[in-house]
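Hey, sorry to bother you again with one of my protein questions. There's a protein on my desk that I can't quite get my head around. No rush at all, and the record is pasted right below.
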Amino acid sequence: MSWAIAALILVALIAIVVLRGARKYRRLLAPEHLLELGGGLARLKEAVFSAPPDLAEPDPERHSFVSSAQLILAYTCSRPHEAHQHHLSLSYRGGPLALGAAGVVIAFCARLLGAPVEHLQVGRSDRGVYHIAWALDDPAHEALRNATLAIPTIAEMPSVMAVCFQDARRLGPIARIPSAPT
C-alpha cells in the first residue's frame, strides 16, 4: 500500500514538471512571442549597424533584448579578418532552454536576418547559452545593412513556423562550448 502511495506521488510530481515545461515552451514558441522577438531583433540589427566599426565592447543596453517571456537575444558583429563575423546569443532567464525550442527560435531569427541555416555555426555553452555565428563578405554585409527585416504578420505565422520547424532540423550538430576555467 505504501509503495502505491509513493508511486502516485511520483506520477503527480512528474505530471507537474511536464505541464510546467509544456506551458513554458508553448509561451516561448507562441506566434505573438516570436513576433515580439522579431521586433527586438530589428532593434538589435539597427544597433549593430550603427555601432562604430572599432567598438571594443558592445553596449548591453543597445545590443541585447529581453522578451516578455524572458528569452534573451544579444547581437554583435566584428571584423577580425576578411569577413564580417555576426554573432547572435540566445538564452532563457528561467534556466536551460531545450534544444528543440532553441532550434526553432534560431531558425526564426536566421530567417529574418536572411542567414541560411546551412551557413550557421551553432554552439551551446555549459551555462545553456546558444551562440550562433555566421560570416558575411562585404557585399552580403552591406545587403543585410540595407535590408529591412521582413517580420511576418500574425496570419503568416503558421506557414513561417512550419518552415522554421523544418529549418531547425537542418541546423546540424550543436557544438558544446566549454566554460572558461575559473
In short: The two ends are 50 Å apart (CA to CA). Strands lie at 64-66, 71-78, 84-92, 121-125, 130-136, 175-177. The mean pLDDT is 83. Residues 31-177 form one domain.
